[in-house]
Amino acid sequence: MADILSAAQLKRLADHKYSSEGVSIIEPYLQVFWRWLVEQIPLHWAPNALTSVGLFINVATSLLVFYYSPDAIQPAPAWVYLITGFGLIAYQSLDAIDGKQARRTGSSSPLGELFDHGCDSISTVFVTVSGCACIGLGTHPILLFYQCIVSSLLYYTAHWQTYLSGTLKFGLIDVTELQCGIVLMYLISAIFGNQIWQYTIPVINLDVNACMAFIGVPLSAFILYGHLGTLMKGGVGKNGATVADTSVVFPLFPIASVIILSTMIAIKSTSDIFVNHPCLYAVSFGIVAAKITNKLVVAHMTKSEMSFLDSVFVGPGMLFFNQYFNTLVSEYVVLWLCCVYCTIDLIRYSSIVCMQICDYLDIYCFKITPITGSNGADKESRMMTRAASKAASSSSKPHTAEDLIGTHSN
């Protein structure tokens, strides 16, 4: 597989330092639990492994909700909501302690930050869609569509402002509060059934789930306003540019393309593809948004320009051109092809980037790298040996970006 990151990008990523500020309302109280929890984790468990396990649990439990409620209307068994709520708690906890485990074991690296944000971009999609299915929001397709789009948009703009300022900023109401709210919704659905969310309130003549969605509108606007406030101030680069000295406005175009394509395809669908298959549709375009968000995070951490064209747009392109040629193939079939393709494309991209970083930093993704090898040689000596081995074989093949990097001491 061809390399994605250049030698210069890898060097800048190795020099990257994580920076964040702000704290949400609930987080200080949960920190007590998280500090206790990380002490129960064995020291040989790698931080990225914790994040991966949490993501796997979260995705697997969300898929249970999609299986029983593909239209985001049908109720799922109570045990499904309980397990999915537990899955979200597990993910939130493991995601919160992975950094603590890295510092505890002395294994912090730029890969950990990138891996964490990448998993979060995927989790955002599944948590949002399964949360909407939990309250039966499929009865209001427009509100369901809005919630799915805005969740990916907010996660993207959070990293957009980080690309400008170099610092990830948290608000008073942030992802922790939203996740706790969704866990509460799962608990209510498990106890009373998701039909309780479809009860019509007499005075205002609105379903409870619609009211919940409408409450989310000003809340999301409040969070987005905070992100836009940072964007309007400009970046820390030259003449107010990004950390990579690139255009402040350019990151708008990739996410705008996702929003426009998802909206246009849903409206022009002859089979009401979103209304009939909202979970599959939202997940498919959510994965597209996750891919471009990962590219934005990589652009920030490597202080490089973000490209507009991306292979992940082939997925939505399938749906678009199928509609353009009067739906030659069933839209449901094409939607599945789009979802599978986009998932494979995201996994391929993430795998190559992780392997390049691991190879450059001489670390493992899911294993804590010891400071010294079994023969007593330090890490730098082992890297020099590997570099010399590459140089010896370079005469028989063209130089790659990896060959030109040289050695690096983490």
Strand proportion, as a percent range, falls in: under 5%
| Global Rg | 22 Å
Distance from N terminus to C terminus (CA atoms, Å) equals 25 Å
Largest sheet: 2 strands, parallel
String of helices and strands: HEHHHHHEHEEHHHHHHH
Write structural notes for this entry:
This protein is mainly α and 410 residues long. The chain is 65% helix and 2% strand. It contains 14 helices and 4 strands. The chain has helices at residues 7-14, 27-38, 47-68, 78-105, 110-134, 141-165, 175-192, 208-232, 252-268, 273-276, 278-301, 314-324, 331-361, 379-393; strands at residues 20-21, 168-169, 200-201, 206-207. The protein has a two-stranded parallel ribbon. Helix 3 (47-68) runs antiparallel to helix 4 (78-105), helix 4 (78-105) packs antiparallel against helix 7 and helix 5 runs antiparallel to helix 6. The longest helix is centred in the last third of the chain and has 31 residues, at 331-361. 40% of the residues are buried.
